[in-house]
Specification:
heterodimer; A: about 240 residues; mainly alpha; MetI-like fold; about 0% strand; flat; B: about 240 residues; alpha/beta; Rossmann fold; 10 strands; binds adenosine-5'-triphosphate; binds magnesium ion
Chain lengths: ~240, ~240
């Protein structure tokens, strides 16, 4: 395995760049981050629409989300890969296809996370905002979303790890990413698939494990912060004793 | 200041308010009491349209709360409301809780809002707590922040729904004293409470509700003398 890493680390890291297209781990991360950046606002919009209480907005979106969540991800890759050229007469290429398919898929999943975060905000705060005459936009931007997204940060980071893993599907439509680079290395070596795909697995595990670790740490921090806050309730009492 | 005329409200088929009529005078404190489920919360929540009514009319300062051109948010920003469970924004410190509506409803610049907010917190004995998060405050302090948040908007009236019911007994006093001070300043208030000692000291009038009806509307003196009717007398005995 060491030998494989020594020989192909650059290919696994950046693909054939600069002699060919950028690929490897770099492209995996670019795809995953792009998907996150585009699907996040979509997911927030879907979650807000679904929690708005406006039926004609919420119902169809609920149906759409459940549809997307009920289908294998590969379906979306195929639809975008074959459907877009058929419908619009343009070919997107592997990487763009992956980004589009993953964005649709992740927007649905992340919208559920955001929705859970919104629904977990105590009703009393929303009612207090109403009673102050705070309008919807301010309520959403200043009260609802900051708390919902903060509380959901660990879940959102975990979701990012799963996006990273899903990018590997890109291999089948020749998106230049980490798995694709590994198969190129495998084709050059021919006799060492175990070592090559061992390195690939280790790469994903370290990356996604690292992301999951960050999520865990954040979750603990958030929990600690709440506990510390709860413990601080005794401070005024202690102060009262001193005076 | 607040006039209810034949106000009725149903939850589905269940009548929560049945033809309530009464008036809260300017600068007066009206305590609303009555058994659980009698419609006390519903009544005060109709005033700032947190609960829509099915019939009747509510006037604040002579203006119908449903008047065209009086938006629900404009109405609410001029009516203070204090909830049993505080309803503080947990991600904002005490001062930011107090200034949120000044800045984003009234549109005051941050500096100005914070000066007003700090002054209001100080009046409620919370100057040192301004930068603390709600979760770092005691229940009594949290409720006083909630009161400051309502008062900083300079409301024409303040509505309080059992402001001390969620508090540990040792913190009830500090909140009641704060409300008492507001009454002394001449603020018009409607307060739902079971604290009858407080009612006797602070209220100008007592409203006794039962099954959605305003069964008695008496001066505090009359009420505690037992001159507000048999049902009110019975209620008073039970407490
Ligand atoms: N959102 C609601 N949906 C349906 N019924 C409701 C709702 N809110 C209140 N009710 C009912 O309306 C009636 C009056 O309720 P309300 O909360 O005003 O009483 P209350 O006098 O404040 O009681 P408590 O002392 O328990 O707070 C009760 O029968 C209650 O069950
Ligand atoms: Mg009530």
């Amino acid at each position: 395995m060491i030998e494989i890493i020594q020989k192909y680390w650059l290919l696994l890291l950046i693909g054939q760049y600069p002699h060919g297209p950028l690929g490897g781990l770099a492209m995996t991360l670019i795809i995953a981050l792009t998907v996150l950046v585009i699907s996040m606002p979509l997911a927030i919009a879907i979650a807000l629409a679904r929690t708005s209480g406006i039926a004609w907005l919420g119902r169809p979106l609920a149906l759409l989300v459940s549809l997307v969540r009920g289908l294998p991800f590969l379906m979306f890759v195929f639809w975008v890969y074959f459907g877009v050229p058929a419908l619009f007469g343009i070919s997107l290429g592997g990487t763009t296809t992956m980004i589009v398919a993953l964005t649709i898929y992740e927007a649905a999943y992340i919208s559920e996370i955001v929705r859970a975060g919104i629904e977990a905000i105590p009703k009393g705060q929303i009612e207090a905002a109403h009673a102050l005459g705070v309008r919807y936009g301010v309520r959403t931007l200043r009260i609802v979303l900051p708390q919902a997204l903060f509380n959901m940060l660990p879940s959102l980071i975990t979701q990012f790890a799963s996006i990273v893993k899903e990018t590997s599907i890109g291999y089948i439509i020749s998106a230049q990413e980490l798995t694709f680079a590994a198969t190129q290395a495998n084709n050059l070596e021919i006799t060492k698939p175990a070592a090559v795909f061992g390195v690939l697995a280790a790469g994903y595990y370290i990356l996604c494990g690292g992301i999951a670790g960050i999520a865990k740490m954040l979750e603990r921090r958030i929990l600690q912060q709440r506990q510390r806050a709860a413990a601080a309730e005794f401070v005024p009492l202690a102060a009262a004793v001193r005076t | 200041m607040i006039r209810f005329s034949e106000v009725s409200k149903f939850y589905g088929a269940l009548p929560a308010l049945r033809g309530v009529s009464g008036e809260v005078g300017a600068g007066e404190v009206t305590v609303v009491c009555g058994p659980s489920g009698s419609g006390k919360s519903t009544l005060i929540r109709t005033v700032n349209r947190l609960e829509p009514i099915n019939s009747g009319q509510i006037l604040i300062g002579g203006r119908d709360i449903h008047e065209r051109g009086w938006s629900v948010n404009a109405l609410r920003s001029g009516v203070g409301f204090v909830f049993q469970s505080f309803g503080l924004f947990q991600h904002l410190n005490a001062l930011d809780n107090v200034t949120l509506a000044l800045r984003h409803v009234r549109g005051l610049p941050r500096k100005e809002a914070e000066a007003l907010g700090l002054a209001q917190l100080e009046r409620l004995g919370l100057a040192e707590r301004a930068r603390q998060m709600p979760s770092a405050l005691s229940g009594g302090q949290q409720q006083r922040v909630a009161i400051a948040r309502a008062l900083v908007m300079k409301p024409a009236v303040l509505l309080l729904d059992e402001p001390t019911s969620a508090l540990d007994p040792e913190m009830v006093g500090e909140v009641l004293r704060a409300i008492e001070a507001l009454a002394a300043d001449g603020l018009t208030m409607m307060c739902v409470t079971h604290e009858m000692g407080f009612a006797q000291r602070v209220a100008d009038r007592i409203w006794f509700m039962e099954r959605g009806e305003l069964k008695a509307d008496a001066t505090t003196e009359q009420f505690f003398k037992g001159e507000a009717g048999a049902r009110a007398r019975e209620f008073l005995k039970q407490i």
